[in-house]
């Protein structure tokens, strides 16, 4: 029952934000239609809608730990139940976004044939074009919802894990974390790999990503399986992090 309570409380933080996101996305499409109707000879393009949803879920994950954790813990909900409720929230939110983006992608395809409108940036046509040629529209919709949901849940889970780490650190630790992690990922490691190994480390990482995501074989089901495994790993790390996290008066 307390897991259900945890889910209901934390889901209130998410569903309204998701609604606002898609009101904005619909508004952007209506604005594009308006602009296209007023100009001639020029194309109105709009890309990256899936990435917008992914970044939104990342932000949701990064900004939804402190308040709900403190409130629920002080009201008798255990850490595991807080985390279980949050994982269910991410699953529900990611599923909502996956369904919404798949429906909007169908609308976008219709709009692409009207006037000078061009919408794009979907994951399936961009990464798995050969797969789309071999399946029906129903299978495409099902795979799209599943794949987008897993991707969005991964972004939310990664953001949530970062938020737990941030919450547990003191001020000095946060400064080191904020500057040190990006520096290592985007500067120190690439330079070290280039000068010490001739870039072979980055090539190996990219090849692994291509294999695990199914991009190398054009098979989105590999990406689905890898994504689910990634979610289990993120949940495991989050469990380890949240076990000894305490309520803090100052953050």
Percent of sequence in beta strands: under 5%
Structural class estimated from helices and strands: mainly alpha
Low-confidence parts: none
Main sheet: strand order: 1-2
Average predicted local confidence, pLDDT: 86
Number of helices: 10
Q: How far is the first residue's CA from the last residue's CA?
A: 30 Å
Sum up the overall morphology in one term: globular
What labels would you give this structure?
251 residues; mainly alpha; two-stranded parallel ribbon; 10 helices; globular
Mind explaining what this structure looks like?
This protein is mainly α and 251 residues long. The protein has ten helices and two strands; from the N terminus they run αβαααβαααααα. It has helices spanning 2-38, 49-63, 66-74, 79-111, 123-127, 129-133, 137-168, 171-197, 200-213, 220-242; strands at residues 44-46, 117-119. A two-stranded parallel sheet has the order 1-2. α1 packs parallel to α4 (79-111) and α2 runs parallel beside α7 (137-168). The longest helix has 37 residues, at 2-38. It is globular. The mean pLDDT is 86.
């Amino acid at each position: 029952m307390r897991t259900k309570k945890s889910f209901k409380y934390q889901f209130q933080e998410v569903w309204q934000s998701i609604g606002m996101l898609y009101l904005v996305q619909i508004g952007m499409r209506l604005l594009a239609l308006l602009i296209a109707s007023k100009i001639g000879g020029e194309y109105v393009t709009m890309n990256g809608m899936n990435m917008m949803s992914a970044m939104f879920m990342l932000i949701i994950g990064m900004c939804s730990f402190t308040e709900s954790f403190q409130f629920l813990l002080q009201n008798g909900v255990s850490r595991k139940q807080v985390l279980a409720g949050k994982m269910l929230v991410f699953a529900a939110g990611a599923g909502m976004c996956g369904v919404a983006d798949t429906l909007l992608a169908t609308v976008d395809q219709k709009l692409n044939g009207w006037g000078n409108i061009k919408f794009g940036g979907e994951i399936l046509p961009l990464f798995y074009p050969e797969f789309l040629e071999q399946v029906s529209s129903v299978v495409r919709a099902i795979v799209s919802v599943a794949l987008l949901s897993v991707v969005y849940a991964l972004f939310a889970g990664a953001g949530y894990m970062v938020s737990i780490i941030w919450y547990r650190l003191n001020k000095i630790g946060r400064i080191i974390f904020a500057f040190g992690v990006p520096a290592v990922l985007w500067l120190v490691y690439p330079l070290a790999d280039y000068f010490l190994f001739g870039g072979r480390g980055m090539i190996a990482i990219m090849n692994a990503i291509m294999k695990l995501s199914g991009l190398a074989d054009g098979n989105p089901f590999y990406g689905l399986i890898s994504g689910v495994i990634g979610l289990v790993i993120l949940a495991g790390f989050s469990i380890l992090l949240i076990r000894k996290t305490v309520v803090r008066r100052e953050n």
